[in-house]
Design brief:
The structure holds two protein chains of two kinds.
Chain A lengths: L1 H20 L3 H27 L7 H18 L9 H20 L4 H21 L9 E2 L12 H23 L1 H11 L1 H6 L4 H27 L1 E2 L1 H4 L2 H14 L5 H20 L3 H18 L4 H20 L6 H12 L2
Antiparallel strand pairs in A: 1-2
Helix pairs in contact in A: 2-6, 2-9, 2-11, 2-12, 3-4, 3-5, 3-9, 4-9, 6-7, 6-9, 7-9, 11-12, 14-15
Chain B lengths: L1 H31 L6 H18 L4 H22 L9 H24 L9 H4 L1 E4 L2 E4 H23 L1 H11 L1 H6 L4 H26 L6 H16 L4 H21 L6 H13 L14
The chains are: A mainly alpha, B mainly alpha.
């Protein structure tokens, strides 16, 4: 237990100290975007990774959160850090949207589910284009904020950090819970799970609604930070696919996998974006990276690494078998593998 | 009323072309159990090929099909061989979506690199002219597109139901393991089917390019329509794709008379409503147990 607590505490301390150590705004800006995607990937994984229902429509919640925060800020005349108090409301809105969306979409499985989420996504994007309240094509601008320039990014950073950590903690709690087991039973064989008494619809819907909340919250934060949302940036299909890629890279259905994936891919994405001269060349590179990840590491980093470590432990144990023999250790190793 | 009938005619003529592109998508799904997200951008790629042939090399786009169809077929076989074949395991469904999306992003980037983002179009001579039948204006290019789609769909049907290869395709659709056991080379069937599914985009792209201006970004609009069509028709059902394409495009044309801004929403709204009643789509089989 101790061996896992120490690195997690170190990681948290690093996260808290990060903007105090790296004061360069360019670095903290990238860190904020990365944290937004950590929260998104962890939330997405809590639904899609655990249940096996791949959603490519979570940008619906992201965009709705962004638009809600934008509209509320404009209409209620909020400024400065007041806007951050809108984020829980944005999360609530995401959850509320997820209920009818989920009731409808979760009636179908596999490919059809994926396509339905894409279709709902396009309905939302089209709505944002056509309504008057969303500002149409020109979108919504954030008010100028009078934060001190030197520490301008810090409030954004810590809000993003809190949302990301909270999402990962809840994702971890869900995975350990009865609810999480039911979700994974649905992933393995939904009909059999129902036969065993899992109320599949309720469980799936619960996870879907939960996963919408943090995504809508970071959507609102993202709007306030980038200062602009328009229909094509708020409802961006590339975001959905990027998040799925993060989860796949790290390990779909594990707690730490999507976090690791987001920590690798988003900075890489930002680096490419800033350093590759041609946007189009950058896209081709990104697509190629994508293919390499999926074809070379189909199960993701965390499960693959866990297996290697497990094998290595087994080998060591069998080497020691002549001298020492501790069945206790074997069960501990398996637990670590399972909950990695 | 005249407007209404004109919309219906346009919808049926235009819908046939969508039916052809969707048939490729649904055929690939039926055989391989994967959805090719790249289908939209492949149509755009085919349209650019026709554009290059007609504007730069002065080859008539209709004649150019002799070049573009084989080219797209080879590209399809190559994509299947290089990427799709390598996907295994429980998450194959999701991974196939991501892989084909990645392929789409690469092609889109390459198209931007080569042609820029300015929308282009090419109008063959006959595309401008139209015939006047019973008070309707029927542009020749729509008729040609309709004819092309009809011929291609008929060819696919004959191929599936009258040839030995078609029989092995249908066997693979029904049961991959059993097909392999009776000596069908399932990998070869998959590669050729993917090739055929992509080759139809050559014809679709040629008509699409002649009737619209397009840029590399146009693929997103196309793929979202095509996906709606194949889901509405029932995944894996070519007849379903045909019916759904005709219905959806006609419905869009009709709504377009009163509400141009919301016309595309018809696609998705129709999808939502139909799936509430029939989750398997119009002509789809009831979904078997997952995996």
């Amino acid at each position: 237990m101790l061996t896992r607590r120490v690195p997690i505490a170190a990681l948290l301390a690093f996260g808290v100290a990060f903007p105090l150590v790296f004061t360069n705004p360019a670095v903290t800006t990238d860190a904020i975007y990365t944290l937004i995607f950590v929260a998104w990937a962890a939330a997405w994984n809590t639904f899609s990774g655990y249940s096996g229902y791949i959603s490519l429509g979570h940008a619906v919640f992201f965009g709705s959160g962004a638009y809600f925060t934008g509209i509320a800020t404009r209409d209620w005349g909020l400024t400065g850090s007041e806007v951050f108090w809108l984020l829980p409301l944005a999360g609530l809105l995401g959850g509320v949207i997820a209920i009818p969306f989920g009731i409808f979409a979760l009636r179908v499985r596999r490919h059809t589910f994926v396509v339905i989420t894409i279709a709902v996504f396009f309905i939302f994007q089209l709505t944002a284009y056509n309504l008057a309240i969303t500002g149409g094509t020109s979108g919504l601008l954030a008010p100028t904020i009078n934060f001190v320039t030197a520490t301008y990014n810090n409030p954004f950073y810590y809000v993003a950090f809190c949302i990301a950590v909270g999402t990962v903690v809840i994702s971890w709690l869900i995975r350990r819970s009865r609810f999480g087991l039911q979700l994974r039973a649905i992933r393995d064989d939904e009909d059999r799970a129902r036969g065993l008494g899992v109320r599949a619809m309720r469980v799936k819907l619960g996870a879907f609604v939960f996963s919408a909340v943090p995504v809508a919250m970071v959507g609102g934060l993202w709007w306030y930070f980038t200062t602009l949302v328009d229909p094509s940036s708020g409802f961006d299909p590339l975001f959905d696919v990027a998040v799925a890629l993060m989860a796949f890279l790290g390990g779909l259905g594990t707690v730490s996998g999507p976090v690791l994936g987001a920590l690798v891919i988003e900075p890489a994405y930002l680096y490419f974006q800033q350093h590759v001269a041609s946007t189009y060349l950058f896209w081709m590179l990104y697509g190629a990276l994508f293919l390499v990840v999926i074809l070379a590491l189909p199960r993701g980093i965390i499960p693959t690494a866990a297996e290697h470590i497990g094998n290595w432990r087994d080998r060591r144990r069998s080497d020691d078998a002549g001298t020492a023999h501790q069945p206790v250790e074997s069960s501990a190793g398996d637990t670590a593998k399972e909950s990695a | 009323m005249a407007k209404f009938l004109q919309a219906v005619t346009d919808g049926i003529l235009g819908g046939a072309v969508y039916a052809l592109m969707a048939a490729g998508l649904t055929l690939i799904f039926g055989v391989m159990d994967i959805i090719n997200i790249a289908q939209g951008v492949l149509v755009v790629l085919a349209a650019y090929l026709s554009y290059v042939l007609s504007v730069h090399l002065h080859i008539d786009p209709l004649l150019g099909l002799l070049i573009t169809v084989p080219a797209m077929f080879v590209l399809g076989v190559a994509i299947e061989w290089a990427f799709m074949r390598r996907l295994r395991g429980r998450e194959r469904t999701a991974m196939s979506l991501l892989v084909s999306y990645a392929v789409a992003v690469i092609i889109e980037g390459a198209l931007y690199q080569a042609f820029g983002s300015t929308p282009v179009g090419y109008l063959p001579r006959y595309a401008v002219a139209s015939v006047h039948v019973l008070g309707f204006y029927l542009p020749y290019i729509y008729l040609i597109g309709f004819g092309l789609a009809a011929v291609a769909m008929a060819a696919i049907y004959l191929m599936l139901y009258r040839t030995k290869f078609g029989r092995s395709v249908r066997a693979t659709m029904q049961d991959k393991v059993a097909a392999r056991l009776i000596g069908i080379n399932v990998d070869r069937v998959a590669a050729l089917t993917f090739g055929i599914g992509v080759a139809v985009t050559a014809a679709g792209g040629m008509v699409f390019g002649a009737t619209n201006t397009f840029n590399p970004d146009s693929g997103y609009d196309l793929i979202s329509r095509l996906l709606s069509i194949v889901i509405l028709g029932g995944l894996g059902s070519i007849a379903g794709a045909l019916v759904a394409a005709l219905c959806m495009v006609t419905a869009e044309e009709i709504v377009n008379i009163w509400q141009p801004t919301w016309a595309t929403a018809v696609y998705y709204a129709a999808l939502v409503i139909v799936l509430l009643v029939r989750p398997a789509g119009l002509l789809g089989k009831q979904e078997a147990r997952a995996q």
